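Illustration 12: EamA family transporter.
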Amino acid sequence: MSVLFALATSLLIGFADFGGGLLARRIPALTVVVASQAVTVVVLGAVVAATGAWTAADARLWYAVAAGAIGPAAMLCFYRALALGPMGVVSPLGSVGVAVPVAVGIAVGERPGLVQLAGAGVAVAGVVLAGGPELRGTPVRRGVLALTLLAALGFGAVMALISQASSTVPGLFLALCTQRLTNVAVGGGALWAASRRGAAVLPAGPEGAGARRVLLAALPALAVVGLADVAANGTYSVAAHSGPVTVAAVLASLYPVVTALTARGVLGERLRTVQAAGAGLALAGALLLAVP
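Figure caption equivalent — predicted structure in C-alpha cell form:
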C-alpha cells in the first residue's frame, strides 16, 4: 500500500507543478500560491467540521504549522523557476529535496536493503536525467537553478514535517487544514507586503477590474492546483506511515517525470534522448524500490 500511495503522490505533485508553473506565466507566482491554497482551506475546513477532526488536536500540530510556514516560500521559489525556465528542466532538479525525508528515515533507524538502495540511486539519477539536465548557461539560468534548489530543500522539509504531524485519518485532515491555514497566513502577509512595495499582485494586462476578471477566470485552475497539492501531502503521509520513509520519499520524488511528460503533451516541449532515458531509469528504479 505504501508504494501505491507514494506513486499517487508523484502523479498529484506532477500535475500540480505543471498547472502551477503554467499559471505563474501569466499570474504573479505569489498570487498563484496564496489563491490556490486559499481554496484548500475552504475545502479542508468543511471536512474538519463535518468529521469532527478538531478533536484530534495535539502537540504534533506544530509540525503542520512549521510545514505551513515553509511551504509558501518553497512554492514561490518553484513557481518562479517554472515560469522562468523550461518545466522539463526545473521540475527534475526540484526533486533533490528527497534527501531531507530520506535522511530523516535513516536517522530514525531505517536501513533499506541493497535492492532498494540500488533502486533509489537509479530512480534519482533517472529523475535528474529526465530534465536534460542543463546546469550551464546565462546568469538567468543560474538564478533559476538557485530558486529550484531552495524550493527543493523546502519541499523536502515539508514532506518530513507533515509525515510527523499525525498518524490517524482525522488527525491528518486537521494537520493538512492547519498547514494550509498557515500557508495562507504567511503567503497572504507576503502578498500584502509585496503590494505595499508596488510589486504586481494581479495578472499582467488590463488594470483594475480587467485584471481581477482574469484572476477570477483562473480560479478553477487555481483550485485544481491547490487541491492536487494538498491531496499529495495526504497520500505521502499515508505512504510514510504504512512503509519505510526512505522508500516512500524516493517514489514520491518521481513527480518530475509526470511534469515533463505533461509539458510534452500539452505544450509540445520536446524530450531529448537523455530525457527519455531518464524517464525509463526512473521507472526502473521505482520497480526496484517496490521489491519487498
